[in-house]
Protein backbone atom coordinates (compact mmCIF):
# COMPACT_ATOMS: atom_id res chain seq x y z
CA UNK A 1 0.00 0.00 0.00
CA UNK A 2 1.38 3.44 -0.94
CA UNK A 3 1.42 6.44 1.34
CA UNK A 4 -1.09 8.19 -0.92
CA UNK A 5 -3.63 5.32 -0.92
CA UNK A 6 -3.21 4.87 2.87
CA UNK A 7 -3.94 8.54 3.47
CA UNK A 8 -7.01 8.44 1.27
CA UNK A 9 -8.41 5.37 3.09
CA UNK A 10 -7.86 7.10 6.41
CA UNK A 11 -9.86 10.09 5.19
CA UNK A 12 -12.67 7.79 4.07
CA UNK A 13 -12.78 6.07 7.47
CA UNK A 14 -12.73 9.37 9.35
CA UNK A 15 -15.52 11.07 7.41
CA UNK A 16 -17.53 7.97 6.51
CA UNK A 17 -20.45 7.90 4.11
CA UNK A 18 -20.86 7.03 0.46
CA UNK A 19 -20.32 10.57 -0.80
CA UNK A 20 -17.05 10.78 0.98
CA UNK A 21 -15.94 7.50 -0.56
CA UNK A 22 -16.73 8.91 -4.04
CA UNK A 23 -14.67 12.00 -3.25
CA UNK A 24 -11.81 9.86 -2.06
CA UNK A 25 -11.94 7.76 -5.24
CA UNK A 26 -11.88 10.93 -7.34
CA UNK A 27 -8.91 12.17 -5.36
CA UNK A 28 -7.17 8.84 -5.92
CA UNK A 29 -7.63 9.14 -9.68
CA UNK A 30 -6.37 12.73 -9.57
CA UNK A 31 -3.32 11.67 -7.58
CA UNK A 32 -2.52 8.98 -10.14
CA UNK A 33 -2.77 11.48 -12.99
CA UNK A 34 -0.56 13.98 -11.18
CA UNK A 35 2.02 11.28 -10.53
CA UNK A 36 2.05 10.34 -14.21
CA UNK A 37 2.42 13.97 -15.30
CA UNK A 38 5.27 14.42 -12.83
CA UNK A 39 7.03 11.33 -14.20
CA UNK A 40 6.62 12.51 -17.81
CA UNK A 41 8.00 15.92 -16.84
CA UNK A 42 11.10 14.31 -15.33
CA UNK A 43 11.55 12.16 -18.41
CA UNK A 44 11.38 15.22 -20.63
CA UNK A 45 13.99 17.02 -18.54
CA UNK A 46 16.29 14.01 -18.74
CA UNK A 47 15.75 13.49 -22.49
CA UNK A 48 18.97 13.08 -24.52
CA UNK A 49 20.34 15.84 -26.75
CA UNK A 50 19.02 13.93 -29.79
CA UNK A 51 15.54 15.13 -28.87
CA UNK A 52 16.38 18.70 -29.94
CA UNK A 53 13.58 19.73 -32.26
CA UNK A 54 14.21 20.21 -35.95
CA UNK A 55 17.77 18.88 -36.15
CA UNK A 56 19.47 15.52 -36.60
CA UNK A 57 20.55 13.48 -33.60
CA UNK A 58 24.17 14.03 -34.60
CA UNK A 59 23.87 17.80 -34.77
CA UNK A 60 22.06 17.93 -31.44
CA UNK A 61 24.81 15.83 -29.87
CA UNK A 62 27.57 18.01 -31.31
CA UNK A 63 25.85 21.19 -30.14
CA UNK A 64 25.48 19.77 -26.65
CA UNK A 65 29.14 18.72 -26.67
CA UNK A 66 30.23 22.01 -28.19
CA UNK A 67 32.82 20.40 -30.46
CA UNK A 68 33.25 18.46 -33.71
CA UNK A 69 36.34 16.35 -34.42
CA UNK A 70 37.31 15.78 -38.04
CA UNK A 71 40.02 13.56 -39.42
CA UNK A 72 42.79 14.51 -41.84
CA UNK A 73 46.15 13.12 -42.88
CA UNK A 74 47.69 16.55 -42.31
CA UNK A 75 48.32 17.59 -45.92
CA UNK A 76 47.45 20.82 -47.71
CA UNK A 77 43.71 20.31 -47.29
CA UNK A 78 43.79 20.22 -43.49
CA UNK A 79 46.84 20.56 -41.29
CA UNK A 80 47.83 21.89 -37.89
CA UNK A 81 49.40 25.36 -37.94
CA UNK A 82 52.58 24.91 -35.91
CA UNK A 83 52.42 28.47 -34.60
CA UNK A 84 48.80 28.48 -33.45
CA UNK A 85 48.15 24.78 -32.92
CA UNK A 86 44.86 25.15 -34.81
CA UNK A 87 43.66 23.38 -37.97
CA UNK A 88 44.03 25.29 -41.22
CA UNK A 89 43.70 24.55 -44.93
CA UNK A 90 40.91 24.65 -47.49
CA UNK A 91 38.85 21.80 -46.05
CA UNK A 92 39.55 22.90 -42.47
CA UNK A 93 38.38 26.44 -43.07
CA UNK A 94 35.23 25.29 -44.87
CA UNK A 95 34.32 22.88 -42.09
CA UNK A 96 35.07 25.39 -39.31
CA UNK A 97 32.81 28.00 -40.93
CA UNK A 98 30.04 25.45 -41.58
CA UNK A 99 30.16 24.34 -37.95
CA UNK A 100 30.00 27.95 -36.76
CA UNK A 101 26.83 28.45 -38.81
CA UNK A 102 25.37 25.24 -37.39
CA UNK A 103 26.02 26.28 -33.80
CA UNK A 104 29.06 24.10 -33.10
CA UNK A 105 31.63 26.47 -31.54
CA UNK A 106 34.77 24.32 -31.51
CA UNK A 107 36.39 22.24 -34.27
CA UNK A 108 39.34 19.93 -33.62
CA UNK A 109 41.49 17.97 -36.07
CA UNK A 110 42.69 14.39 -35.51
CA UNK A 111 45.83 13.50 -37.46
CA UNK A 112 45.15 10.13 -39.13
CA UNK A 113 46.74 8.43 -42.18
CA UNK A 114 44.52 8.82 -45.24
CA UNK A 115 44.07 5.07 -45.61
CA UNK A 116 42.65 4.86 -42.07
CA UNK A 117 40.25 7.81 -42.17
CA UNK A 118 37.16 5.78 -43.08
CA UNK A 119 37.87 3.22 -40.35
CA UNK A 120 38.13 5.98 -37.74
CA UNK A 121 34.99 7.66 -39.02
CA UNK A 122 33.00 4.46 -38.65
CA UNK A 123 34.34 3.52 -35.22
CA UNK A 124 33.44 6.93 -33.79
CA UNK A 125 36.95 8.28 -33.28
CA UNK A 126 36.07 11.23 -35.53
CA UNK A 127 32.78 12.84 -36.53
CA UNK A 128 33.76 13.79 -40.07
CA UNK A 129 36.40 13.28 -42.76
CA UNK A 130 37.77 16.48 -44.32
CA UNK A 131 40.88 15.72 -46.36
CA UNK A 132 40.37 16.31 -50.07
CA UNK A 133 38.43 13.05 -50.47
CA UNK A 134 36.88 12.41 -53.89
CA UNK A 135 33.23 11.39 -53.78
CA UNK A 136 33.16 9.33 -56.98
CA UNK A 137 34.51 6.09 -55.52
CA UNK A 138 31.66 3.57 -55.11
CA UNK A 139 33.69 1.39 -52.74
CA UNK A 140 34.11 4.34 -50.39
CA UNK A 141 30.40 5.12 -50.63
CA UNK A 142 29.61 1.68 -49.25
CA UNK A 143 31.52 2.62 -46.10
CA UNK A 144 30.75 6.33 -45.61
CA UNK A 145 28.13 8.86 -46.65
CA UNK A 146 29.41 11.77 -48.74
CA UNK A 147 28.29 15.36 -48.41
CA UNK A 148 27.79 17.40 -51.56
CA UNK A 149 30.93 18.49 -53.39
CA UNK A 150 32.53 21.60 -51.92
CA UNK A 151 35.06 22.23 -54.73
CA UNK A 152 36.85 20.36 -57.51
CA UNK A 153 40.38 19.67 -58.72
CA UNK A 154 42.48 17.60 -61.10
CA UNK A 155 45.69 15.65 -60.74
CA UNK A 156 49.34 16.69 -60.90
CA UNK A 157 52.28 14.58 -62.04
CA UNK A 158 55.49 15.69 -60.30
CA UNK A 159 58.82 14.79 -61.93
CA UNK A 160 62.49 15.76 -61.47
CA UNK A 161 63.27 19.21 -62.84
CA UNK A 162 66.05 17.88 -65.10
CA UNK A 163 64.04 14.92 -66.43
CA UNK A 164 62.73 14.64 -70.02
CA UNK A 165 59.23 13.68 -68.83
CA UNK A 166 56.38 15.96 -69.90
CA UNK A 167 53.52 13.52 -69.32
CA UNK A 168 52.82 9.98 -68.19
CA UNK A 169 53.22 8.89 -71.80
CA UNK A 170 56.94 9.74 -71.67
CA UNK A 171 57.52 7.33 -68.76
CA UNK A 172 57.54 3.84 -70.27
CA UNK A 173 59.52 1.52 -67.99
CA UNK A 174 59.69 4.15 -65.21
CA UNK A 175 58.49 4.05 -61.60
CA UNK A 176 55.63 6.32 -60.53
CA UNK A 177 54.64 6.71 -56.91
CA UNK A 178 51.29 7.25 -55.21
CA UNK A 179 49.89 7.70 -51.72
CA UNK A 180 48.07 4.49 -50.67
CA UNK A 181 44.32 4.79 -50.30
CA UNK A 182 43.98 7.80 -52.61
CA UNK A 183 42.19 7.79 -55.94
CA UNK A 184 45.56 8.29 -57.61
CA UNK A 185 46.59 4.79 -56.62
CA UNK A 186 44.10 3.36 -59.10
CA UNK A 187 45.31 5.67 -61.84
CA UNK A 188 48.96 4.80 -61.42
CA UNK A 189 48.22 1.08 -61.15
CA UNK A 190 46.16 1.31 -64.33
CA UNK A 191 49.08 2.93 -66.14
CA UNK A 192 51.32 0.06 -65.02
CA UNK A 193 48.84 -2.59 -66.22
CA UNK A 194 48.57 -0.90 -69.60
CA UNK A 195 52.34 -0.52 -69.92
CA UNK A 196 52.22 3.28 -69.94
CA UNK A 197 54.76 3.18 -67.06
CA UNK A 198 56.98 0.43 -65.77
CA UNK A 199 55.87 0.12 -62.15
CA UNK A 200 53.36 1.59 -59.69
CA UNK A 201 55.01 2.19 -56.30
CA UNK A 202 53.34 2.95 -52.95
CA UNK A 203 55.49 5.77 -51.58
CA UNK A 204 53.53 6.84 -48.51
CA UNK A 205 52.40 10.30 -47.48
CA UNK A 206 52.75 13.30 -49.79
CA UNK A 207 55.94 14.55 -48.15
CA UNK A 208 57.52 11.07 -48.10
CA UNK A 209 56.68 10.66 -51.78
CA UNK A 210 58.28 13.96 -52.76
CA UNK A 211 61.42 13.01 -50.82
CA UNK A 212 61.48 9.63 -52.58
CA UNK A 213 61.29 11.46 -55.89
CA UNK A 214 64.09 13.87 -54.94
CA UNK A 215 66.34 10.94 -53.99
CA UNK A 216 65.67 9.05 -57.22
CA UNK A 217 63.74 6.15 -55.72
CA UNK A 218 60.91 6.87 -58.15
CA UNK A 219 60.71 8.78 -61.44
CA UNK A 220 57.41 10.53 -60.88
CA UNK A 221 54.66 11.06 -58.31
CA UNK A 222 50.94 11.46 -59.03
CA UNK A 223 48.85 13.40 -56.53
CA UNK A 224 46.22 16.12 -56.13
CA UNK A 225 46.86 19.36 -57.97
CA UNK A 226 45.69 21.24 -54.88
CA UNK A 227 48.42 19.65 -52.78
CA UNK A 228 51.14 20.60 -55.24
CA UNK A 229 49.75 24.13 -55.69
CA UNK A 230 49.76 24.60 -51.94
CA UNK A 231 53.31 23.34 -51.53
CA UNK A 232 54.56 25.57 -54.32
CA UNK A 233 52.95 28.62 -52.68
CA UNK A 234 53.61 27.96 -49.00
CA UNK A 235 56.55 25.52 -48.83
CA UNK A 236 58.49 25.82 -52.11
CA UNK A 237 61.56 24.20 -50.52
CA UNK A 238 59.68 20.88 -50.55
CA UNK A 239 59.59 21.08 -54.35
CA UNK A 240 63.32 21.73 -54.69
CA UNK A 241 64.64 20.00 -57.81
CA UNK A 242 61.11 19.07 -58.88
CA UNK A 243 58.54 20.41 -61.35
CA UNK A 244 55.15 19.62 -62.80
CA UNK A 245 54.86 17.53 -65.96
CA UNK A 246 53.04 20.14 -68.03
CA UNK A 247 51.65 17.62 -70.48
CA UNK A 248 49.99 15.44 -67.83
CA UNK A 249 46.45 14.41 -68.82
CA UNK A 250 43.68 13.37 -66.43
CA UNK A 251 42.80 10.34 -68.53
CA UNK A 252 42.43 7.49 -66.06
CA UNK A 253 41.03 9.81 -63.41
CA UNK A 254 38.75 12.67 -64.51
CA UNK A 255 38.20 15.94 -62.66
CA UNK A 256 37.69 15.15 -58.99
CA UNK A 257 34.80 16.45 -56.89
CA UNK A 258 35.80 16.82 -53.25
CA UNK A 259 33.48 16.15 -50.32
CA UNK A 260 33.45 15.70 -46.60
CA UNK A 261 32.18 12.32 -45.41
CA UNK A 262 30.39 10.92 -42.36
CA UNK A 263 29.23 7.60 -40.98
CA UNK A 264 26.15 6.27 -42.81
CA UNK A 265 24.19 6.66 -39.58
CA UNK A 266 24.84 10.41 -39.73
CA UNK A 267 23.46 10.96 -43.25
CA UNK A 268 20.89 13.45 -41.89
CA UNK A 269 23.73 15.51 -40.44
CA UNK A 270 25.47 15.46 -43.83
CA UNK A 271 22.33 16.91 -45.39
CA UNK A 272 22.34 19.70 -42.80
CA UNK A 273 25.93 20.41 -43.79
CA UNK A 274 24.89 20.42 -47.45
CA UNK A 275 22.50 23.31 -46.85
CA UNK A 276 25.28 25.32 -45.22
CA UNK A 277 27.76 24.44 -47.97
CA UNK A 278 25.22 25.70 -50.51
CA UNK A 279 24.97 28.99 -48.63
CA UNK A 280 28.77 29.24 -48.57
CA UNK A 281 28.98 28.65 -52.32
CA UNK A 282 26.36 31.29 -53.06
CA UNK A 283 27.70 33.97 -50.71
CA UNK A 284 31.29 33.56 -51.96
CA UNK A 285 32.75 32.14 -48.75
CA UNK A 286 34.26 29.06 -50.38
CA UNK A 287 35.84 31.15 -53.13
CA UNK A 288 37.41 33.44 -50.51
CA UNK A 289 38.90 30.40 -48.75
CA UNK A 290 40.30 29.07 -52.05
CA UNK A 291 41.94 32.45 -52.76
CA UNK A 292 43.22 32.73 -49.18
CA UNK A 293 45.41 29.67 -49.72
CA UNK A 294 46.83 30.90 -53.02
CA UNK A 295 44.74 28.85 -55.44
CA UNK A 296 42.99 29.94 -58.62
CA UNK A 297 39.21 29.87 -58.00
CA UNK A 298 38.62 29.21 -61.71
CA UNK A 299 40.34 25.84 -61.27
CA UNK A 300 38.47 24.86 -58.12
CA UNK A 301 35.17 26.71 -57.56
CA UNK A 302 31.84 25.77 -59.09
CA UNK A 303 30.25 28.52 -61.20
CA UNK A 304 26.86 29.92 -60.26
CA UNK A 305 25.23 27.90 -63.03
CA UNK A 306 26.85 24.57 -62.07
CA UNK A 307 24.55 21.59 -62.51
CA UNK A 308 23.70 20.11 -59.12
CA UNK A 309 23.07 16.54 -60.27
CA UNK A 310 26.18 16.14 -62.42
CA UNK A 311 28.72 18.22 -60.50
CA UNK A 312 27.74 18.91 -56.91
CA UNK A 313 25.65 15.96 -55.74
CA UNK A 314 27.60 12.83 -54.80
CA UNK A 315 26.97 10.33 -57.64
CA UNK A 316 27.55 7.13 -55.66
CA UNK A 317 25.90 7.45 -52.21
CA UNK A 318 24.27 4.07 -51.65
CA UNK A 319 21.52 5.06 -49.21
CA UNK A 320 19.89 7.99 -51.08
Secondary structure topology:
Layout: H1 3-15, H2 18-45, H3 57-65, E1 67-72, E2 79-80, E3 87-88, H4 90-102, E4 106-111, H5 117-122, E5 128-134, H6 138-141, E6 145-146, E7 151-153, E8 155-160, E9 175-178, H7 183-194, E10 199-202, H8 206-214, E11 220-224, H9 225-234, E12 242-244, E13 256-262, H10 267-282, H11 285-292, H12 308-312
Parallel strand pairs: 1-4, 1-5, 9-10, 9-11
Antiparallel strand pairs: 2-3, 5-13, 6-13, 7-13, 8-11, 8-12
Structure description:
- It contains 12 helices and 13 strands.
- Helices cover 42% and strands 18% of the residues.
- The strands form 3 sheets. Strands 1, 4, 5, 6, 7 and 13 form a 6-stranded mixed beta sheet that branches. The protein has a 5-stranded mixed beta sheet with strand order 10-9-11-8-12, with helices on both faces. It has a two-stranded antiparallel sheet with strand order 2-3.
- The protein has 3 domains: 3-45; 57-152 and 255-312, 3-Layer(aba) Sandwich (D-Maltodextrin-Binding Protein, domain 2); 155-244, D-Maltodextrin-Binding Protein, domain 2 (3-Layer(aba) Sandwich), CATH 3.40.190.
- The model is unreliable at 1-18, 20-24 and 26-50 (pLDDT under 50).
- It is an alpha/beta fold and 320 residues long.
Amino acid sequence: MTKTSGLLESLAFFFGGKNMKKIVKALAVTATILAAVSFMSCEKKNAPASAEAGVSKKLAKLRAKGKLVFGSSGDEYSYINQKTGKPEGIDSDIVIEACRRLGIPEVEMALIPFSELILNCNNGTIDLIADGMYNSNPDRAKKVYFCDSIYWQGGALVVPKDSPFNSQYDMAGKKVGYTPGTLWQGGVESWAKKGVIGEAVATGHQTDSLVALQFGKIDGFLTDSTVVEGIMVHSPEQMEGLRLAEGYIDDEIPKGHISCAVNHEDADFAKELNKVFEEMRKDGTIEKIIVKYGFDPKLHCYPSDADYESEIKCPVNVID
